[in-house]
Amino acid sequence: MSSDTKKILVVDDEESIHLLYREELEDEGYQVISAMNGEDALKLFESENPDLVILDINMPGMDGIEVLRQMKQLKPDVPVILSSAYPEYKQDLASWASDDYIVKSFNLDELKASVKRHLQGS
Amino acid sequence: MPELRRDPIIGRWVIIARERGKRPYDFIIEKDKTKGGFCPLCPGNEKTTPPEVLAYGRPHHDPNGPGWKLRVVPNKFPALVIEGELDKRGEGIYDKMNGIGAHEVIIETPNHHETISTMPLEQLQLVFMAYKDRIIDLARDKRFKYIIVFKNFGKAAGASLEHSHSQLIALPIVPQLIQEELDGCLRYFDYKERCVFCDIIRQERQQNLRVVCENEEFITICPFAPRAPFEMWVLPKRHQSRFVSLDDSQAASLTSLFSLTMKKLDTVLPNVPYNFMLHTAPLTDFGLEHFHWHIEIMPKVNTVAGFEWGTGFHINTTPPEESARILKDSNPTQKGDLDEQ
Fold it and tell me: DSSP secondary structure string, A72-87?
């Protein structure tokens, strides 16, 4: 893995999402690391120094909004993209701490474009 | 015995459950847990919001940087979009149009822990000035017919961020609830040739049963048929249909009375979640004789459930006379130059 390969942390409690995102993002040349819950995500966020995070909102235990709040407190410059099945969370102003909000879909073009946009210049 | 009461403006019925007569200590209000961590609305984090459309108090020309006293920014993830045409169309009997609108957030203070009831009067006056300035600016867009300004305070009332903020949504239609109010006001005016709100103010001042507080220009009452315990309306005493007609002296007077009203609410029901909504005339209606702008304050202490959704009725466990008496008798510590009676 080249040293300038960008590392993406995917946080989601669904295994199928990890498989889908990993396959698509690795095809794009990114390194993907995974966490199944908020607590593990925060540990990896600190130890692995990802360049970008894709974060689910609805998770058991610590929800994605709380994880987002803590990640932005720790490292405000690391882009975090919220990825949720629920568009209504867009109305939740707490999601503003994120850099983008993508509604989950099997068509990942929007997500990949957002990842590319936020990793440019980082 | 419970009492059915009819709102004189839109004809909405409420059930006043007198025998239940809940007093403030009967309502269990859990204070939202203070959340630490990153706040996208705090000074220093301006880059996490879209570029501001209005800012007050920044001494130097440094848009989207710190140093502000109040900021207004568009919604980062808007439900309605500002670009495009309405393209009104029908699909059989169904009507639709493109989701055109504007959704803005008024960041009321740079101080994360300040609330409407604790902020200094000069800061609260900036909030009202921001409402006015944004309405005037957005009204130039002829696609918009109505602008609703509202605030959610506390998680139970829909606020996910504790940093004090209110919201504004410009709509291409007049909302049904506002239209019902306009229609009710017009029916009353056609019959009596007087504004129903002016008559309400006159009667409430004469009876003094539901008046919470007043000053020279404004009055706060608990309405005759309130949907919720401790619901309050803040109204200008002089007839005015549009909020943007507020002049500087009125703005100071509104600020003073509104601050007192919210301090009273906070004293009687500490940390209660609430919503307030500004009802003003549609953008294209000037100088309506039959409509009177006002602010409705709805503490979130009861649950809207099947009966309410199914009938439009509300059950209120605290009569407004009792709510008004308790609020009136409350004595919050006052700061600033208040001219309440």
Answer: HHH-TTS-EEEEES-G
- Which domains are present in chain B? 8-23+42-329 (3.30.428.10)
> CA A57, A61, A65: angle at the middle one, nearest 5?
30
Q: Do B40 and A101 touch (CB under 8 A)?
A: no
HSE-up of residue B182 (Cα within 13 Å, Cβ side): 16
Contacting A residues, span 19-78, partner chain B, CB-CB under 8 Å: 65-66, 68-73, 76
- Strands A52-55 and A7-11, by their bridges, are parallel
- Output DSSP code: residue A57: S
Q: Which residues of chain B does A72 touch, with a Cβ-Cβ cutoff of 8 Å? A: 37-38, 40, 48
Q: How confident is the model at residue B63 (pLDDT cuts 50, 70, 90)?
A: confident
Phi, psi at residue A89, to the nearest 5°? Answer: -65, -15
Q: Which pLDDT tens digit goes with each residue over B242-258? A: 999 999 999 999 999 99
Mean pLDDT of chain A: 91
Q: Report residue A42: phi and psi, to 5°.
A: -65, -35
Query: Tens of pLDDT along A59-112?
Result: 998 989 999 999 999 999 999 999 988 877 777 888 899 999 998 887 889 999
State the pTM of this model: 0.89
What is the percentage of chain B residues whose pLDDT exceeds 70? 94
Residues ≥6 apart with Cβ < 8 Å to B4:
B13, B14, B15, B16
B120 to B35, B45, B125, B263: CA distances (angstroms) = 24, 23, 9, 12
CATH of A7-115, one of 3.40.50.2300, 3.30.70.260, 3.30.70.270, 3.30.300.130: 3.40.50.2300
Contact call for B38 and A69, based on CB within 8 A: yes
B311–A contact, CB cutoff 8 A? no
Cα of A6 vs its chain's centroid, Å? 13
Determine the distance from the C-alpha atom of residue B298 to the mean position of all C-alpha atoms in its chain, rounded to a whole number: 8
Helices (H), chain B: 121-138, 176-192, 196-207, 248-268, 306-311, 320-329
Domain locations in chain A as residue ranges: 7-115
- pLDDT for res A120: 86
B161 and A70 within 8 Å at the Cβ level: the answer is no
Neighbours of B142 (CB within 10 A): 9
Phi-psi label, residue B112: left if phi above 0, alpha if psi -120 to 50, beta otherwise: alpha
Task: Please state, as a whole number, how many other Cβ atoms lie within 10 Å of the Cβ of residue B78.
Answer: 17
